[in-house]
Give the backbone structure.
Amino acid sequence: MTLPSNRSFFTALIQYTQSKNLQKGKILHAQIIKSDSSSCVYIANSLVNLYAKCQRLREAKFVFERIHNKDVVSWNCIINGYSQHGLSGSSHVMELFQRMRAENTAPNAHTFSGVFAAASILVDVSGGRLAHSVAMKMDCCRDVFVGSSLINMYCKAGLVKEARKVFDTMPERNSVSWATIISGYASQRLAAEALGLFGLMRREGEGDNEFVFTSVLSGLTVPLLANNGKQIHGIAIKNGLLSIVSVGNALVTMYSKCGSLDDALQTFETSSDKNSITWSAMITGFSQSGDSHKALKLFSSMHHSGIRPSEFTFVGVLNACSDLGASWEGKQVHDYFLKLGFESQIYIMTALVDMYAKCGRVADAKKGFDYLQEPDVVLWTSMIGGYIQNDENEEALSLYGRMEMEGMFPNELTMASVLKACSSLAALEQGRQIHARTVKYGFSIEVPIGSALSTMYAKCGCLEDGTLVFRRMPTRDVVSWNAMISGLSQNGCGKEALELFEEMRLEGTKPDSVSFVNILSACSHMGLVERGWGYFKTMSDEFGMDPRVEHYACMVDILSRAGKLKEAIEFTESATIDHGMCLWRIILGACRNYQNYELGAYAGEKLMELGSQESSAYVLLSGIYSALGRWEDVERVRRMMKLRGVSKEPGCSWIELKSGVHVFVVKDQMHPQIRDIQAELRRLSKQMKDEGYELTADSFSAAL
């Protein structure tokens, strides 16, 4: 039998490579070995290329290493093969490039295209720069493919200025070059530069294509740029690009991110060829804009349309469930993505943990967290935040300690969350330790860490440290100002809180609803009734904000603390919002303090009518009727309390000593030093009586 010639081998290898027919390629490889044609460098190079294109890099490397007289094509085949194999393959490219140079084989444009492609995947700037200098020395940067690959490498590393230098010096540019540099600017949120290049490209007569349009649209992410997006939309229609699904997807995403949901929905509905990305973009748009019900409804329509959801779809839907607190729907989504095999997808699991935590199902959130063997920092932070959202601050600090022990490097959001836990517990020493770690990790005191630090110190009563952090922050948002104003107000520094509020306004920071809660609270503690009225009216008159329940509560508190109980009742009864029982509770407490039992009885009966479930309201009203000698009403209130199943929850307090937190609950006998504590309480009680003090409450007997 006559064996095929090298030419026929070469032709067959090209055919099998193009069709990626690995099975026939292997048979042909065996024939080549049998005919002793594998020593031919052209045949050997083609074999390397065949295996590389079929994703069989081990076989490609095996053939490559046995080529005795490797030429530039040999190196290019193996380098480009590895560079097209993602992160695992690209890690070998730089080593191969160094070997190529060490063996005195001069690289060409195809070599550099592969090297720069690998460097962009690895974000290996140093290796990429070295290859860039070699390419310049060999005058290969003039090649349009090399230039485009080099631009892509710098853009992926975030070095758009370097990428622009390469772009500006290119003698020839193609649509890939334009799309890559525009995409680089868009990824860095430099929309003005991306739009400028898009305009320049059209003026230079470069043909419009879908890659350029999707690149420039990806950079339009704020409402201010919606009109620019509409103009590009018009150009896409004119050029007949709307039939391309990627352009339609980019338009839906752009309108959603710019807050133009009506335009996004219209584009979505008129799209003739919707894929999973189209549906995901619209669902995510609804979710991110607060239209979570519409997001869930659209997801249901997607399911009935037979479109398989992607991981991005599930993230958007789970976020919608989080916003609605829809745990039942969230559980259904959980079951659905398990059925489709997405349980190891970290983005989905992070959204799942967040959903369960926001729905109050911390145990389920923890199960999702524990399922992944190697959670990333985002998932750790999400779980820590979940504990804090559900007031399980000790668990949050414990999980952070475990995160540290496992060597996971936290990010700024992690540290801000942990500091919030310290704030809630008033755990000053632990807060100081976290502060020290933020310094150790090199985090600056910008938002959000600066705000969290000043809040923590303020809530722990360390106003000096809180003020120091606040003043050192390079930039402050309204959250930072609110944290410091609140700290001053809650620690008896009302005057300083008012001064800081006015300073915030002078610096041009617009107050929000929380700002007015803080400042009204300061007025309440200082007894500044008229000034409080002024701030309350300023909300709507100057800033166009409708007062919420919390602002009404502050005003009632201001009036009540000042003894203006009738005015407080009149204000409450004239309130135009649904305040439930909140305002009457404040008035009832103030009536007790001022011993105005008649008005107190009126406020207490209002709470009874509204069906209050708080034991304190019944206890206060019962005490007021006792003071008035109305014993039948005392019995009536007690019967009502029993009938409604209202019980008094035991009081709880804690204190931090020597890096330990001691928790105390009324009638609790579980503390390891309870006998010593009881003995000290008896001693203090006896000393108080000996010095002529009378106990007005049964606090000591409850503890004993």
